[in-house]
Amino acid sequence: MNLFDVYPLFPQELVKAEGSYVWDEKGNKYLDLYGGHAVISIGHTHPHYVKLINDQLGKIGFYSNSVQIPIQKEYATKLGELTGGYDDYQLFLCNSGAEANENALKLASFHTGRKKVIAFSKAFHGRTSAVVAATDDKSIIAPINETDNIIFLPFNDEAALEAAMNNEIAGVIVEGIQGVGGIQIPTDSFLQKIRSLCDKFGALMILDEIQSGCGRSGKFFAHQHSGVKADVISMAKGMGNGFPIGGIIIAPHIQAKHGMLGTTFGGNHLACAAAIAVCDVIKQDNLIENAAEIGNYLMNELKKFDAIKEVRGYGLMIGIEMENYADVRKALMNEQYILTGVSGKQNTIRLLPALNITKAEADHFLKAFDKIITKLAVTN
């Protein structure tokens, strides 16, 4: 049986990982500044993470949500303590970012009794039913996903938002920072306008923090830079440091009822052990503060390069827009052994390293980046 060929793959096979580094099958060591799409939050194979998963596996690895699972409540408590103002919210656990956003949209529709959702240009919310329809990429929307329930508006356009809002809107979904869209940041006033209009029309404000959450932005959630509070927040990626887990946190005024949402694997024992380990390490090692400090340092240094058109981001979610982004990224990987991400439609390299990246590792990247820029400038 062959694999269904839907991924454009690099030739490397990664066989080992530790901290901010990975090794390929030939023994080459790479500085990992991408973490598999912002998934690696506390570093590869962190000892505390490995221990908690192994310990849990020796007790019970899985049972469904038809029984008491106290480790879910333990995780909810630790998560609430880290969020900085959301400890009175409710947690629903699932398996992925797309599933988290599906449940967020479903919850908004249940709560309001409405169908319409506002999303924005360059948005990416997932590849499944409703959320792929709310993703601004027609190439991944199948005919079965097409719907007139999603209203797309220009990102950061407050006037367009005000004109579109009405009593038919169930929710407004927006990313804390657009990742696939090229590290685009919603302005403070834009998020505040969403909040005020949702309040006015009885809609839910849904913050997609799947890539930008879990401390990556230098705050636990990126939207907290703007001083707003959402009704529903979706999480995944860095939440489990590589173990599949997603979830939504839900405002107290939204009422639950049995059967409203559900999942077989969501919130299983091993997933919760992984997520608890992430919370523990973030708290003990002050990783949110480290993300802010190292992220600011990287962005300030990158802004000194004339070859860069723009540097965008918060914390350790950084976009480097430049004309020859693809050549630079390829050379970083093949010549300097540094892994980065990309937003090809936006000519942007994405940096999404583990939150415990050191200044020495940041400097290693900056020196390598300088070498590549200098070399490409000479050859061109």
Automatic annotation (TrEMBL):
The keyword S-adenosyl-L-methionine does not apply. One of its GO terms (molecular function) is transaminase activity. It holds the Pfam family Aminotran_3. This is Acetylornithine aminotransferase. Keywords: Aminotransferase, Pyridoxal phosphate, Transferase. Gene3D superfamilies: Aspartate Aminotransferase, domain 1, Type I PLP-dependent aspartate aminotransferase-like (Major domain). PROSITE patterns: AA_TRANSFER_CLASS_3. Signal peptide: none annotated. The keyword ATP-binding does not apply. Its cofactor is pyridoxal 5'-phosphate. Belongs to the class-III pyridoxal-phosphate-dependent aminotransferase family. The lineage of its organism: Bacteria, Pseudomonadati, Bacteroidota, Sphingobacteriia, Sphingobacteriales.
